[in-house]
What we know:
This protein has helices at 2-28, 36-49, 51-83, 85-98, 107-114, 119-142, 146-154, 159-197, 202-211, 216-241, 244-247. By secondary structure, the protein is an all-alpha fold.
Amino acid sequence: MKRIKEVLPAVAVIAALLAAWWLIVVETRSVIFPTPWQVVTGTAELIKDGTLFMHIGASLMRVGVGFSLAVLVAVPLGLWLGWVKGAYSTLNPLFQILRPISPIAWIPIAILWFGVGNASPIYLIFISSVFPMIVQTTAGVHTIERRYLRAAENFGVSRYTLFRQVVIPAVLPQIIVGMRIGLGVAWLVVVAAEMIALRSGLGYLIIDSRNAGNRYDLVIAGMIIIGLIGLLLDGVMRLLEGLKSVRWRYAH
C-alpha cells in the first residue's frame, strides 16, 4: 500500500500530461502531430512487423559493446591515476581537455576512421562514456579516508593487498556512480549517431519515420521507447548502488 502511494503522484502527472497532449491535438485539429492513441497504434504496428525489437536490439548491442570497452579501460586507468601521483599530474590535463568535447563533435572523426558501420557508434559510445568513469574513479581514490590506509599500514599489509582489499572496495561506490553517468551519456550518444550514419537502431527509426511520409506517430513512439529504456538502464545501475559491497560507504 505504501508503495502504491509513493507512485501515485508520478502516475497522476503522466496522466495529466497525456490528457493535455490529447486535448491540444484535438482542439488544434492537427493533421500531422499524433494523438497518444495514434502513437499506441503506431507502436503496435512496429511490434507486429518485428522492426521495433530489431531496432532496440541494434541500439542495445552498440551501447553494450561500447560501454563495456569503456569500463574495461576507465576503471583500471582511473585507479592508476588516483593511486600514482606522477601519472595523475601527467595525464589529467589531457583528460580535462578532452572531457568537455561534445560526443556529437566526434561524429565526423568516427565516420572518417571507421566508416558508417557499427564501429562508428561503438567508438562514439566509448569516447563519450570513458571520461566520466575515469574522472569519477580517480576522484574516488583521492577521497579515500586516510584512516583506512593508516589502519592497513598498522597491520603491515603489502602494497598489493592494500590496493586490493582497501582501495578498490573504498572506491567501488564512486566507480558505480561513474558507470551510471557514463551509461546515461552512452544511451544519448547512440541515438544521435544512429540518426546520421546507420540504417538500424532507435535513432534511425526516428529519422526514417520522419523522412518516410511524416510518420510522427512513429517518431513520438521512438522517443518514448528511448526514454523508457533509459529509465530501465538507470534502474539497473541503481540496483548496483544498492549492493551491500557498495552501500556500506553511504551508511551513517
